[in-house]
Amino acid sequence: MAVVPSDQVLLARACDAIFAREDSRGATGRARLALAFVALPLILGIAMYTLFSAGMERQLHALDAVRLGVPLRALRVITLPAGAHAPDAIRFHFADAAWGWALGAALSLVWANDPGVRRTGWFVVGAIFVVGTEIAQLAGLMPGTFDPIDIIVSIFAYAAAWRLVSRAVLRLEVPSHV
């Protein structure tokens, strides 16, 4: 009978393997966590939103200043029709989840070692910001379409990233014998 490792053991092994304290180039574990759990979700969220969302002309016009508007418009000729066949969860909620995840991960990276009130306060501030962006859309203060499901998806992703990254940072900084 095979022994199945617990989720904590699997997380510990993943952190040890992927986010070692320092790699051959001197990158720290926290920097690698930031790349994996903050930068990558932001890039994926921006890509999904840019390539699959209709009504991006104002944003594309702004990208003309850095010569990205034309290539993105050309790419959207292909991606918009393909995106129409993607599941609604991907088309309408993935970007919000990715941004909520990135914010939760970023704040968690900063406050992981502070067990006090400041850490809890920043968790609450981040959660308010995640909800506030959707409420701002509802009030017309921010571009976008209000969707209550986006609030749920964003908060869930925010809290999951906060918890996972907090545990990963602690795991990186405390030697283990797992």
Description:
The structure is a single chain. The chain is mainly α and 178 residues long. The chain has one domain (27-173). Helices cover 73% and strands 0% of the residues. The chain has helices at 7-18, 29-52, 57-63, 69-83, 88-111, 117-138, 148-173. Helix 2 (29-52) runs antiparallel to helix 7 and helix 5 (88-111) runs parallel beside helix 7. The radius of gyration is 19 Å and the shape is globular.
Secondary structure: helix percent: over 70%
SSE pattern: HHHHHHH
Write down how many β-strands occur, each being a DSSP E stretch of 2 or more residues: 0
- The overall pLDDT average reads 83
- Beta-strand portion reads under 5%
Give me the number of helical elements: 7
Compute the number of structural domains: 1
Provide a brief overview of the structure.
73% of the residues lie in helices and 0% in strands.
Structure keywords:
mainly alpha; 0% strand; 178 residues; 73% helix; 7 helices
SSE map:
Blueprint: H1 7-18, H2 29-52, H3 57-63, H4 69-83, H5 88-111, H6 117-138, H7 148-173
